[in-house]
Amino acid sequence: MIVTLTEKFILGLILVAIFGLMLSVSLEESAIMDELAHIPAGFSYVKLFDYRLNPEHPPLVKMLAGLPLAFMDLNFPTESTSWQDDVNGQWVTGTEFLYESGNNADQIIAWARVGPMLLTLVLIFFTYFWAKEMMGAKWAFLPTLMVAFSPTVLAHGHYVTTDIGAALGFLVATYYFIRFLNYQSKRNLWLAGIAFGFAQLLKFSTVLLVPLVILLVLIFSGIKAFQKKSWRTIGIPVVKTFLIFLIGLAVIYPFYLLTTINYPPEKQAADTEFILTSFAGGRDPARESCKPLRCVAEATIWASDKPLLRPMAQYLLGIEMVLQRSAGGNTVYFLGEVSADAGPLYFPVVYKLKEPIPILILIAIAFLFSLYQIGKSIAKKSASFTNYLGTHQAEFALLTLILVYGLYSITSPLNIGVRHLLPILPPIYLLTAGSLKNWVMADKSRKKMGFVLVMTAWLLVEAVITYPHYLSYFNEAVGTNNGWRYVTDSNYDWGQDMKRLKAFATKNPEIDKIAIDYFGGASPSYYLGSKFVAWQSNKGNPLDSDIKWFAISVNTLQNATAMTASDFERKAEDEYQWLKKPYEPYARAGKSIFIYKLD
What we know:
Shape: globular
Number of strands: 10
Strand content: 5-15%
Structural class: mainly alpha
Radius of gyration: 25 Å
Number of helices: 26
Helix content: 55-70%
Largest sheet: 5 strands, mixed
Distance between the termini: 66 Å
């Protein structure tokens, strides 16, 4: 693909601006919850070649985060019980590594986030790369800007988590598989396999690429076979698709081999067996045979201390842990109620509340125009599914990805944030931009083009005025200040504001003690020192202990005080009864930590 000097300049400006925004926000924010586990895990992979921490996520994002840390003089708690004896002692090890080993926690967090930020820039660049192929250079900037200035991307693009990695993995793997289907050369076969393998190293949800790819190859090959009236032509693409999966496994293996070199086989086996003890319901007592998933678990346990099989056993362990986690659900506050499963409305509602309104408007126009075109074609009897697939393979693949991943998300009980929809945001934006181009060019309307430009400008302005609270962003339908009333967790409060709480305490010297109930990856004692007093609901009112200030994470507050679903139990002593009346927040640290003055 040839990129002109003008395109390079504009794309370069976008990338520099986004990196600057993410870097600036990153330096203001404390560690979010998942980083407490991911950062020490990444360091242990690249420095110690040991995968005992955080096996429920693949290694690549964490390795990128850990790479700059490997060149720093850091103390790692290899002698602690959490490292030596605990099974996946990621949370305690993370606390010890960041806050209790004499390291500079802020410096570690800042450098660890560089790798994820670079992945975000690659995602933006690749969006432009594919968009230019689909709709030309000028229109390609529309989906590129939508990805780059999405508050969700700006929020999660600078954290050491796997969500941006998932978006990149799905997009790149889908692109190269469609390229392979169009021209089944050896080069494209290898590129598709390598892209598939790297996707698996970014997030385990990319396993969904397997059914997606199989579905696409059967559809496209089936259409060709129908046209040629020869069903034998399906066999070759199917076999080649299987080879793509094998190449992907060949990409995965060396990463897991490298990161398990110093993971003692006996500990890996013991950890694996402990984690998978109850996987998939155990054995069938009537037949003394294992259920299908349990058989996989037992094979994983058996392979976990075998020299050549240990790397793949660790990979399979991660996938099985994700399946366990997904089936178990998660405590979530959603629309005024706390439950273990927010239900199928969760992702549609959260998406509509957290997606910028200009993007929602553009998506609506694009969708309605696409329906109009389909209806027009049907009326003229010119519609043909086979003709459509022959000229719109990329669009059909992206639409299929959105439908497959969207269905999986809606039916999953694991509802913990709009971040889980990141893999379908670039595909949605690509399809939207393509349809909008057709809408504008249908009559070459300057008014339509002007409207698209106004919506784009609105998006850019919104990204600027939302700074630096991208994680807590909600669109104008509810407002960022009020988003916590609708849904919390990583949609609003992930622990990012502890450094801002420290700044508040510093600016108010009358605060000698402050009771804190905090949700996140930071250490209140590390930032607030002797001012910090750990607190929970069952301790009662801090004022009774002569503590006049109280701070609580809004995620904790909502889970403690909101109504509970019929299937959710909560103890009365955990409900912060004393806080409901007469107290109102005196201030906020950022958006997510409410501060109360109790006297």
